[in-house]
Fold this protein.
Amino acid sequence: MEVERLLVIAGAGTGKTTFISDKVKQWIESGVEENKILCLTFSNEAALNLKQRVALQTGKEVFIETFHGFCSWFLKENNVDFKILTEYLQILRIHRLGVDKATSSLYAKTINKCKNLSLNLEKYRLMLDEIEKKLRETGFENLENAYDDYIVKSLTGVETPNLDFFAEDFKRFESYSKFLKFWEEYEKKNAEEKFFDYEDLQLKAIELLKSKNPGFTHVAVDEFQDVDSNQLEILKLLGENSNIVVVADQNQSIYGFRGAKNDNIDKFESFFKPQIVTLTENHRSTNQILKAAFNVIKNNGRGILLHSSFEGPPVKVVECENSQAEAAFIAGEIVKLKDYSSIGVLYRYKHHSTFLKKELEKLGIPFELIGSDMLNTQIVKEALVYLQALNNLQNQSNASDLPILKIFELNGVDKKTLKELNDFKKKYKLSIKEIIDKGLIENEKLKNILRKLEEIKIEGIHKTLESICDVFDITKTYASRDDRRALTDFNDFELFIKNFESENSNLNDFLDFVEIARNGSVEVEGKPSTGENVKLMTIHASKGLEFDVVFIINASKEGFFPNHKQSDLIPLEFHDMLKRIISKKYVYKMTRDNDLKYFLKKERESEERRLFYVAMTRARKVLYVTRPLKSKKDLEPVKFISELEDYEIIKPKIKTEVIEKEVKDLGLKINSFSFSSIESYLKCPKYFEFKHLLGFETEPSKPLLIGTFVHDLLREAKDIKSFEDLQKLFEIKNKDFNFDEREILRMLKVFWERNKDTLKNIIKTEDFFTIELEGFKFTGRIDRYDKTENGLEIIDYKTGAPPFVKVQLMQLGLYALALQKQGLEPTRLRIESFKEKPIIYHLKNGKIIGKNVEESLESIKQKLVEIAKKINLDYNNSFQCNPGYQCSTCEYRPYCNES
């Protein structure tokens, strides 16, 4: 009997899953036993959906599983002894080895990618040896010292010919070496406890499939374009002597970050020589949407023009003044459409939905967040605050009091009392619990809340959550408001807890994992409810869903191609798609690097185009593509809009109003501002409220601790006579901190080389000042000012990246105004950054002048006064969150209802 090998190219909405269920029915009707049929999918939900369809069509129960589920079953069938290390446990395991939370997620993804690229520990070590060998060809005995010397020289104006490539390679070598150390520890721990991560499951299954046949004669695969290298190898082994059918749409390959390869279809064709069937009849979208989607995707070189029996309206491209106007337009259209459950709003990154969520809440439009956004909803944040507070109280450690303070606020304690608690905490160096227990603040409400909290026992994560809900009426409060969206979010959260608890019931581990997941490092599965609400989600989360009306929002270049860089700990040589360029012989390394950059840029553009295509084809009847024209600068449209070719442009006249009031109308309550508080307000008004108004303290970050340490050290710089003296001073002071010696000594060397000849000119260091401007007091601390031939030079030390130019000008301008009040005449202003080159400004005729920038002290003064007025305006109304990418790293995010 001839073996069937079939590749089905099925465009969006052409019925991929239906084709597979029909094919299984055909096999069964032709006499194939159901236990000989294997269907593979990519999610538990897809597997369940296909099982239900097949059971309905055939009355039979066929083996339908995810790839990981199949591998686990196959290994257990062959008596392999192991436990599964899920994604949750994998990241936590790496974190427990001493890696910070954000890096734990990066390391976990890198380990998985390495295993997918057949890059095991031994190969990774050999690769590192090769890099080290190449580095030693430079003749340096001590590579660390050579690198540090290069950094110091490059930052102090000393030419370092031909060392740029050495520095770049050494930096990679260091990051690879650090990663390898933890990878080795991770594998050792897994071996000791017989744990397999998901990639281990696949690799062990591949090994076993070479000698054992699982007995399936007919294999079907859904969403084949999403398979990774190991999964393709599994299919080769399964399909070697079996019938195999795969259904794919290369234009919907959007999981490159998980290891999916865009050339899978070509590899399948090459290995299996299949018959190819193309499905072109779309059962979902209108012809207008399909034509526009084809016009976009054809620019990737492959596109199939699908057709439908409905023509429909053209795609609508909406250009709005800014993100607030965009949100107002979308909310207004949703009100007109009325059928909320048939509307999907899709975005590239989670923070793009912030303004729209506010607008929908304002208009009372019910909506639901799908996926990991659920962890950032208000009701879930409240629940997590209670869990965190209980965990902190039980551990009796130096944990933050922020969760308890937030619980007081949730239970009606006013901000004045919260500020008072914080003041006592700072004054007496006591915890909030100790302050209340000792009776330093006599407040029955605080005592009752704390007592109720302490009476709750931690008995498993979900059971503890139920106790919290019983005692503090969290869900009842939302139910009384008929807030269905919040209750749906809470139900999703309970499911999330149960899934985690099935593997690990430790509350501390759970809270650590939530922090990782909350920052977008881990996708949290979540499917839309059938409720009457608008669905908001990332484009990735929308895969497999469809809506009558779809809004693709923030379709700007910045929206799809932000500037933040992503780390990669896998050398380029091991990426299949780059081997052609890497293997070429180049005369100049720079030429090769430029070719690589261009290739990677085009690859990323192709993947983002496929993502845009997926978003477009979620729409059944109407498709809106909206974009803001301005943010802090003019925003370019994402290039895919111009590729649509035929569309309707809408330019709504929606203006966002800014409320302006005279300061005299406000009843001033905040009169004094440090510059750091001004900087915080510019960063985010809500951040200012938490940090400077309420005084909520968080664990200081490592960069902040280093900055404080270096500033304190350099206070004594005037009396230092040699670098050796400076080094000794560092060693004495570092005994109490144990900071990384190399990092700080490198900064101190930069400082010394730049300043050794001018230390004798120091007039003052750490100069505290207060200056009054139009009734407001501004305070600050000038790191240093020196005497020069033409007046004074103000110097501000930076141990991290310098702030934006407008903040630099405002800070240095305030310092100049303060010294002028003392009768001094600053003429030169310097940002002395120890990790970048110094930034020099000159002060002449009341104006700060720098490279491509000029601003008067009077202008800076007015800006400072205006910010003070805005802070008071917010104090009398409310401090708003400034949403954006920065929310993901904000220490107050768990306690902010708007981030």
